[in-house]
Design a protein that fits this description.
The complex is a heterodimer of chains A (300) and B (217).
Chain A (H helix, E strand, L loop, with lengths): L1 H10 E2 L9 E19 L3 E7 L3 E8 L3 E7 L6 E10 L9 E7 L3 E14 L4 E15 L3 E6 L4 E14 L4 E15 L4 E17 L4 E4 L7 E6 L4 E5 L5 E7 L4 E3 L7 E2 L6 E7 L4 E7 L4 E5 L2
Parallel strand pairs in A: 2-6, 2-8, 3-7, 3-8, 8-9, 9-10, 9-11, 10-11, 11-12, 12-13, 13-14, 13-15, 14-16, 15-21, 16-22, 17-21, 18-22
Antiparallel strand pairs in A: 1-5, 2-4, 4-7, 5-6, 17-20, 19-20
Chain B lengths: L7 H8 L5 H13 L1 H18 L9 H15 L7 H24 L22 H24 L5 H27 L4 H24 L4
Helix pairs in contact in B: 1-3, 2-3, 3-5, 4-5, 4-6, 5-6, 5-8, 6-8, 7-8
Chain lengths: 300, 217
Amino acid sequence: MSHRFAALALALVALPALASAQQKVDIRRAATPTVSVRLGGHFASLAVTQWAHDSIALTGVVGPGTRFDGGALNPTGPVQGMKFFVETAQGASTAGNRLELRVPRNARVWVKAGSADITVDGVAGGLDLNIMGGSVRVTGKPRELLVESMDGPVTFTGYTDFARLKTAAGDITVTEGGGIDLHLSTVSGAIRVAPGERDFQRGRFESVTGPISYTGKLDRGADLRFDTHSGAVDLRLPRPSNLEMDALTITGTIENAWSSSRPIAGREGRGMELGFSSGSAVARVSIRSFKGNVRISPAP
Amino acid sequence: MMHDHPDIETLSAYGDGELPALARTRVDAHVAQCTSCRGALAQVRALVASAAALPPDAEPPEAAWQEIRARIRREAGPRRVRRARRAWIGVGALAAAAVVLVAGNLLSRPGRSDKHFAGGTSAAVAALPAGLASVDRNYVASIAELRGTLEQQGRSLSPHTVRVLEHSLALIDTAIAEARAALAADPANAALAGILSAQYEHKLGLLQRVTKLVPAT
């Protein structure tokens, strides 16, 4: 790996140190179709879009007191990897640091920012997006989607093979979504899931206090798990659906308006349990909660 | 036939004969054709067997927790370079291991159905049966190590982030206390053990997430 770091040292673009005034960013390089781009630091917004060129373009502005640094990992030929860093001086505002990144469709993008609004549209490679605050909004069909946030909301619209979306207080919303293996996790945010034309093969949705809602169809062979401590679970499923339901809340209630099956009292008479199969039971739904209330009803 | 690999919890339930018939059939078909899942199943069965063979008050295998703690240190360090996907798999695996250990200890203990349920409001630390308490202590030790790492990095966190973190930790701690109280009163309740483990997983995951998000200094 040492030759790679040597190449990096040679290839990094030396940009002005601390800017005393707003400066434009305009970096363009030919790139491989699967170029890997890493961008970290302090910026207020980042818009990532794919385009039909084998090149990348990073444009935008950074404000006074900001140092922008980085460049290509290989000095010659189409860029295989690029790395950028935005650093603000102590006390300087990041509000003026606004960037746009255009990449080949199958590029891989990694972002780590303090508080930033990040949008990604149409990128089909892997995405790894990490923020403290701000927001993340992803649209498209990334092969792999990893998002971690503290209190910033996360929204995904599209399809992915593999997704891990995790927040502390931020809401997680998946609309018109689908995927093979999805895991959404929050402490107190709300999880809202609405599958699209292609829905989920395997989904795990979990919170501590945040409510979870799922509205939409179930894929054949789907395996969905909902886990909360006190957050309510609200499932709205189309009828008829072929499913096997297994729900349990230790001290909460279960309301089933979807089928004629009635919940029964739980262990030692506390809480409720509900189990039923419908049709050929090709989808499996499991719900576990400590004191959250569970409601299962027909989709509108 | 199942197209995806069953997760560790499913394999564990399968190994214990707890899966519903349809799911069992799917895993049957998958395991018959998947070498890696057969290996994972063998490991799960071995772990359950070793946990179940423990005397009720015995400590869980320390080696397992040493590995877990070492993994957390590797993956949550301030200069962590491993891929995030692996990190989440690591947390999931350790939580799954904990579920298996808790379940193993539960299975090795006689039921205590005569106890009254403590309810869901107590935030006080409840005394767990010795077998569960040892698992609990190991979780707490792992969490303490992560908190220590975080405190070293804490100067890099904004006041707002600290507030969000502390609020989230308080919510999880309340959930842990409630699940512990309930489990102390009903120690044979495997669902409660799973719920308690899930809260620990939340706490480990949150601390790991913050250590990962803290800017390198």
